[in-house]
Amino acid sequence: MKKTLLAAALLAGFAGVAQAETSVTLYGIIDTGIGYNKISGGPDAVNGSRFGMINGVQNGSRWGLRGSEDLGDGLRAVFQLESGFDSGNGKSAQNGRLFGRQATIGLASDSWGQLDFGRQTNIASKYFGSIDPFGAGFGQANIGAAFSAANTQRYDNMVMYQTPSFSGFQFGLGYSFNADDQNTAQTGFRTADNTRAITTGLRYVNGPLNIAFSYDQLNASNKLSTTQTDATPRMYALGGSYDFEVVKLALAYARTTDGWFAGQGLNSTTGNIGFNSNIFADGFKANSYMVGLSAPIGGASKLFGSWQMVDPSNGRLSGVDSADQTMQIFSLGYTYDLSKRTNLYAYGSYAKNYAFVEDIKSTAVGVGIRHRF
Fold first, then answer.
1. 101, 123, 173, 290: which sits with the fewest CB atoms below 10 Å from its CB?
2. For 41-60, what is the HEC assignment?
3. Residues 73-101: pLDDT tens digits?
4. Three-class secondary structure of residue 179 per DSSP
5. In this structure, what DSSP letter does residue 9 have?
6. Three-class DSSP category at 227
7. CA proximity to 214, closest of 160, 172, 257, 176
8. Three-state SS at 225
9. pTM metric for this prediction
10. 3-state DSSP of 254-305
11. Is the sign of the CA dihedral 132, 163, 105, 233 positive or negative?
12. Rg, C-alpha atoms of the chain
C-alpha cells in the first residue's frame, strides 16, 4: 500500500514538472454576422448589391495551437499553428491551407528575442494593427485598404527575427524565400523563379504612445513578364497613436512604389473585389494617409472611426483599367462587450474611386458577434 502511494506521488510530481517545462494552448475566435455591400459605378460584372451572412469581420475566424518547451538557460522552443475558416459554411480559409494563418517553429529568449521559421505575417501587419482604430479588421475599413503591405500580409517560407523590447523599442526583420507557394505563375525550382519578400520595421511602445516604422519589398519571380520583373514593389510606412484616455488619436503615412501589395481592390478583368496576388507595375507610385480616432463609451463600449486616402500617380496597376484615381475611405465602428470574451459589433464604410478606378463606390455595413476562447 505504501509503495502504491509512493509511486502515485512520484508520478504526480513528474507530471507537474513536465507541465511546467512544456505547455500547449488551444485557442480560437468565431466571428459571424449579417452584412450589406453595394458596388456602384463599376463594370456590369460587379455593379450591384449583396445582403447576407458575413464572417471574420472584426477578426478572422480561426482555431490554433501554440506551445513552448523550456530548454534551460532562458531558452525556449516555440511553435504556433493557426487555421482560418469561414464560420458561415465551415470551409478552410487562406485558399484551403490547413494552417493558412500561421505555421511557425522557432527559438525564443527573454534576453535576445525570437527567431521563427514558416508562414507568418510581415512586420508591417504586426506593428500597424495596434495603431489602426479598426485593429486591422472590418474589411475595407481597416488600414490595409490604403496601406496594402499592412493588410495582414502573410508570406510562406519566412525566416523572421524580432528583438525583445528594450525600454519600449523593438526591431524586426524577415525574409521569405518564396512568398506564395500556391501561386504557380511565380513559383519554380531556382531561387530567382520565386517571388521573394523582405520585411523589416522598428516600433516604440511606452504607455499611451505607440510609434511604428516599416519597410516591405517584393522581388519578382523571373517567370513573370519583362514588364513585371522590372518592377520591385516597395512600401515605406510611418505611423503612431497616442491614448489621451478620453480619446485615442492615430495618424499614418506610407509611400508605395512599383506596384501594390495584395489587399482590397477591384479586378475589372475578373469582376471580383479583392486583388488575389501582389501586383508588379513599374513606375506606379502612391501616397497613403490615415487619420483615426477611438473613444471608450462607458465601461463596455467603444466608438471608432477613420479616414483613409491613397493618391496614386505616374502609372497604373496592370490588369486594372484606369487605376489612377485618388481613393478615399470613410469608416465608423462600434463594439459592445457582453463579457471578457464575447462582444457585439457594428460598422459602416464608404469608399470613393475604390481600387483607384474612377467613379466606383463601395458601401459596406454589418453587425455581428465575436467570441474568443
1. 173
2. CCCCCCCEEEEEEEECCCCC
3. 999 999 999 999 999 999 999 989 999 99
4. coil
5. H
6. helix
7. 172
8. coil
9. 0.88
10. EEEEEEECCCCCEECCCCEECCCCCEEEEEEEEEEEEEEEEEEECCCEEEEE
11. positive
12. 22
Interatomic CA distance for residues 288 and 318, integer angstroms: 19
Instruction: Identify the DSSP state of 97.
Output: -
The DSSP secondary-structure symbol of 165 reads P
d(CA 42, CA 48): 9
Query: What cell was used for 306?
Result: 477613420
Secondary structure letter of residue 74 according to DSSP: T
Q: Please, where are the H alpha helices in 106-152?
A: 123-128
Q: Which residue has the cell 463606390?
A: 361
Note the pLDDT tens digit of each residue in 101-125. 999 999 999 999 999 999 999 999 9
Alpha-carbon distance of 105 to 67, in angstroms, equals 10
Residue type, 53: M
The residue length of the chain stands at 373
What's the half-sphere exposure (Cβ side, CA atoms, 13 Å) at 145?
31
Whose cell is 465602428? That residue is: 333
**Pairwise CA distance, residues 3 & 245, whole Å:** 61
